[in-house]
Amino acid sequence: xxxxxxxxxxxxxxxxxxxxxxxxxxxxxxxxxxxxxxxxxxxxxxxxxxxxxxxxxxxxxxxxxxxxxxxxxxxxxxxxxxxxxxxxxxxxxxxxxxxxxxxxxxxxxxxxxxxxxxxxxxxxxxxxxxxxxxxxxxxxxxxxxxxxxxxxxxxxxxxxxxxxxxxxxxxxxxxxxxxxxxxxxxxxxxxxxxxxxxxxxxxxxxxxxxxxxxxxxxxxxxxxxxxxxxxxxxxxxxxxxxxxxxxxxxxxxxxxxxxxxxxxxxxxxxxxxxxxxxxxxxxxxxxxxxxxxxxxxxxxxxxxxxxxxxxxxxxxxxxxxxxxxxxxxxxxxxxxxxxxxxxxxxxxxxxxx
Length: 353
What we know:
Elements: H1 2-28, E1 34-36, H2 44-57, H3 76-80, H4 83-88, E2 91-96, E3 99-104, H5 107-115, H6 124-128, H7 133-141, H8 163-171, H9 176-199, H10 207-224, H11 246-255, H12 257-262, H13 265-268, H14 275-303, H15 312-321, H16 338-348
């Protein structure tokens, strides 16, 4: 067994090295500074373990690590700021086994890219497929799932033809008329957060968790008219209901988004898995039930001739009513399907990168 695993690992490493050198050869024709990185930033297994690896690497003196290691960290550009461009120039590239990642800090080049946006098509396959050997393993078990398509196709995975159809529905409720509501809700949540911070007699436990709670509450209120009181991380876990709220289910789903992208939530609910995994699977299923309930309520209101809540869910319900789900005759389907609605709710609810 160990020999088999070692052979697979050696084969994978050899393939990665070959892909890295082929990509480097392609990138060399551009005659710009290049940095070889042995692991692609979009490599899914690395996305899972990378944070833990850097917890150990950060204990070592920086001069002991190769320079390219910094580009293997998720969100490396926040730490680097302009340092890499000062070192390599306004245009350079990271070359990995998965591809060539251009880094551009040139106003004229960026302006030209926007003017020729049709020449720079969104790489939808990077969002909807796994870019390494995990792709084969996952599609062998469930060909309908994809990286960001945890609940269904969405605007982030739509191709050039389908993207306008998704955007039309998503953009409808986000107009000037809703800005007053967004501001009021954001102000209310911020005041509650500051009040919670001021009332505690100890240091703030987690700025990150508290600000994300604020984001989740504003998103839930703005998009789906679900209002929640702010709860600080200092307060500890709140009362756990038998049926978690929309926000609670969404919070668990987002905290474990990478796991859900790798393993469908229905498999995580297996009694043979650890309870922590079962909790994620249950939250994933509960979140879908909340989406179903909200969509059904909004659709029923529209069918009764009511105007609806005027939220994002209202826009989704209208799109569902006009959906035919049919391709053919050189035309795209109208509206959005139920799975496309669920997929978009998940993506826009995610206050992360």
